[in-house]
Write a structure and sequence with these properties.
10 strands; alpha/beta; 7 helices; disordered C terminus; 2 domains; Rossmann fold; 4-stranded antiparallel β-sheet; about 35% helix
Length: about 280
Amino acid sequence: MRLPRDRNDHRIVKAQLVGVDKTFENDGRSVQALSGLSLEVFKNEILCIVGPSGCGKTTAINVLAGFTSPTSGHCLLNGERIAGISPHCGVVFQQESVFPWMCVSKNIAYGLRFNGTPKGERDAIVQRYLTLVGLSDFAHSWPRDLSGGMRKRVDLARAYAANPELLLLDEPFGQLDVLTREEMQTLLLDVWACENKTMLCVTHDPEEAIFLGQRVAVMSPRPGAIVDTFPIPFPMPRDPALKCSPEFQELRRELLSALNRARHNSKAPRTFPCD
């Protein structure tokens, strides 16, 4: 079974990057991170981006989140241009971002408090996400008393609880050990099955991309551009045992081939990592 090329899709487009270029000034020289990057993310799908280190994956996330402006091109959410940091985007970073001075429940409630959600409603939402991520018994625990995987659960619950229209995940499990990483991948899909969210997930791991994504986009080396987009045929929900199947392993080989083609076809210098 070969990875099929993506076809025109008539689902609702939730977010778009349209011809995005991004150039940084670095010690008096210009470094182009993105070049004409265009991508559509459909409503309620999980789209994964894979690419070599330094290709601009994180830069693409930062542009879509409004953390930095494109040099040219633009980003859209629900058909409207993103200008500045968008309250409708949630982000889960690779680095731990729980607030160490807040207990678990207050971490999860942070965005709700910021948005002025009434206390009764806020408490109910926090309890729901504590249950969904399996932290009900740790509501009043401090982050320092949690494992790395548990703190990542807090990150995910906090992002989900704020009810963003678009959830951006920047290698969210990259710092976890193999077993915890697999556990978090399954948890993410379980939470998504309960409450569909539109997600764009950056990863350098083709296996993770295939397991999580309904589509996988391949980026070229810097300056990054989308060079291939593949639909993933496995239905949801997915079990980790899927990774051992011949079909999954064949798709993994196809995706690795696509990554290698993208790398070898690029003539861009690779001395300045942009992600």
